[in-house]
Hints:
- The protein is of the alpha+beta class.
- It folds into three domains: 1-292, no CATH class; 302-348, no CATH class; 418-575, Heat Shock Protein 90, CATH 3.30.565.
- Helices cover 47% and strands 17% of the residues.
- The longest helix has 65 residues, at 7-71.
- The chain is flat.
Amino acid sequence: MLRKFKIKSQIIFLTALILGIIIMLQILLYSILQHENTRTVNSIFNSVTQNTVSQIESLNNNIAEISSLLAVHNTIQETLYEHTHLEIVRNMNNIQKLLSEYRTRNKNIAFLGLIKEHSLFMSDEDIYLYDEVRNIIAELSEPKNSTAIYTPSFIYEDQIYFACITPVFPTNVLNYTPHHTGNFVVCIYEMNSISYAAYDFIDNNQIGLVITDIDNNIMLSANIDEHNTKFMQIEKSKNILYKTLPLKKLPWNVTVFMPSNNVVNLSYLSRIFIAVMILTTFVMLVLMFKLLNDIIIKKIVLLKDKVKKISDSDTSYRITYDYEDELREIVTVINRVLESIHELNEDKLESLSSLYESQLLQKETQIFYLHGQVSPHFLYNSLSHIQGIAFQYNATEIVHITSSLAKVFRYFSNNIYLSTIRQDLDCAIEYFNVINMRRENPINLINTVHESLMSIRCLKMIYQPILENVLKHAFDLDEVGTVTISSIPDDKKAIIEIKDNGRGMSPDVLNELNVHLSESELSQVNTNEHIGILNVNMRLKLYYNKDCGIEIESQKNQGTAIRIIFEKETPPESSQIQIK
């Protein structure tokens, strides 16, 4: 029946019908919003509570992780179980720097110290907590495993602190002892970084937080006078919301509470929403009568037919429109979106190609260097055993080579993608020393890299292939020579130069190598020579940008200089490639 009326009459009839339906839906929506108000408020509060508990658990896990990493760190292990008293005195500054470095990993840490034989041995110089640490030491018992121990909170100068105690056991089987020798890592921390919710409409100052132990004693609350007193349950009230949740790994309970009026009153908002919708509906009705006519409808139908021609498989299609009116702007926007989609598809294909190639390069590198690793712990223990036997027979060369091999195996087998310049250079130099011991005339290695670059993060295994390439190509087995590792000052880039006084390269060989370094894909290089340098160059370009990579200068019989260049700042995590 509706088809017998003209389009304008149909529009008026349908508009009136839609208007009536909208008003009825608005009334129904108002009733539903009223009914759902309480449930929504409770849902928001549950989210606030869960978010708070998750942050506390994450903080405790991070503190335990930092303490555990310190407990197995080589410097700590050697200091507690291997070094002589004189060696310990010499390395005290390094130990203190290590503690300070680990403390900066979490802004909640107030004190980080090392206990040796039940006595405070070294800390990060925050002396104001020494007395409390000594009290904690006095109460420590002999642990049965390396699990972190959390002590009850304590008050110091009107501030509540928590303590995480991690037992230190020897990681080297040669240092094994059937009883714990009283070595611990002490980490005292606060909970200043806990924020209650990510909702702008909630006043965090009105949210209360209480942490209690298994005996319901208060360990943390806004009122410091309540510390170590029994926590009384909050009386149920319409004006107070509260919830108690247990922590997963600790026998602590977390109670979060706040006034219910701290959450936005949805009933009030729903009334405003309904009123605005009714007013908007009438305004739209008036505008519709004015704008909808035969010409507009005709153009809309024409535009609809052309939009239907848009295909997912053909992103090059563009809509043509011959009228100069408001709809032309819509067509322009649609065409602009189609153009953006087309460009995004092209960029996506290119990004996927680069991502695949980078992942392939990293996997190939890991497979190349870890191919022989069947049991890393077996290799470490075997090398340590050989080193101990060689030490007994005063075979210093065997001691040195097994020590270097153990460090190289440990670094190669560590499944990390990013390292630091210090760690990567140390591994490369140890590898260099192992190979260098085979030579009739060992090559002299000089390292003068500036200390300010050592802590900069970098890709793993970028210096070892370069040093290996130098030993392979720069000198004959019976030749003597010198390799110098140095740094070149630069504000934005980390530039390490590895220079030798070996045989150098002819202009033709150097030119060919530079051509390979400029290739955009490693698959375009049809040679296995210098594959290590080319691999490192491509990884640096893919991970950072095309301005990074390797530069080479060389002259025949006058040596070669290789510069490894990359950004000092690591790219954002969203742009990093994670290799699992």
